[in-house]
């Protein structure tokens, strides 16, 4: 609720339109849009917690629930060989990990060589100061993903309004 109500103040909606147009040039547009929303949600969450310290407890609980959900989904997607969704879940878990030592697990021989690049890109999400910064990170990741991933996401975890 906080993210949507207060978050629009911190987001550049023209960049949202730009990322939607960019996503539709790719073979995996849902990956692009959902990564963008995930990263932007994290950026906004950090900004809200900074500006409104009373929200930290609510966001902590939200993150705990989401992490539990994404851990379950990661296992299911790996068992069913749904690579794209498994990768997204692993990205969420790495991005929201309490420890910097938590790593993206090996997922598939195709994607494993890209894991160090993915992890270094995720570190930049917390340094992003704007929606445009988030879009740049997503576009950089999508250059590799669009070539490697054969299928778009099966599930919708984060919706681009």
Topology readout:
Elements: H1 2-10, H2 13-23, H3 29-51, H4 56-79, H5 83-95, H6 115-123, H7 131-148
Helix pairs in contact: 1-3, 2-3, 2-7, 3-7, 4-5
Question: How does this structure look, described?
Answer:
It is globular and about 45 Å long. Helix 2 packs parallel to helix 7, helix 3 packs antiparallel against helix 7 and helix 4 packs antiparallel against helix 5. The protein has 161 residues and is mostly helical. It has one domain. The protein has seven helices and no strands.
Keywords:
globular; mainly alpha; 161 residues; NorD/CobT
Distance linking N and C termini: 14 Å
The average pLDDT value, as a whole number, equals 93
Hey, roughly how much beta strand do the residues contain?
under 5%
**Rg over C-alpha atoms, rounded to the nearest angstrom:** 15 Å
Number of domains: 1
Count helical runs. Answer: 7
The helix content is: 55-70%
The string of secondary-structure elements, in order, is HHHHHHH
Low-confidence stretches: none
The global form is globular
Question: What class do helices, strands and sheet pairing give?
Answer: mainly alpha
Reported for the largest beta sheet, the result is: none
């Amino acid at each position: 609720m906080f993210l949507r109500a207060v978050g629009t103040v911190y987001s550049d909606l023209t960049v949202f339109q730009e990322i939607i147009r960019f996503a539709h040039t790719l073979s995996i547009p849902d990956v692009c849009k959902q990564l963008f929303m995930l990263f932007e949600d994290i950026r906004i969450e950090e900004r809200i917690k900074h500006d409104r310290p009373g929200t930290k407890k609510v966001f902590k609980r939200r993150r705990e629930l989401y992490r539990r959900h994404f851990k379950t989904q990661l296992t299911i997607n790996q068992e069913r060989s749904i690579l794209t969704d498994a990768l997204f879940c692993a990205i969420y878990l790495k991005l929201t990990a309490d420890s910097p030592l938590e790593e993206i697990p090996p997922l598939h021989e195709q994607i494993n060589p890209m894991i160090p690049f993915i992890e270094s890109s995720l570190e930049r999400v917390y340094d992003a100061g704007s929606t445009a910064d988030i879009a740049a990170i997503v576009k950089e990741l999508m250059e590799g993903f669009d070539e490697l991933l054969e299928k778009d996401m099966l599930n919708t975890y984060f919706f681009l309004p």
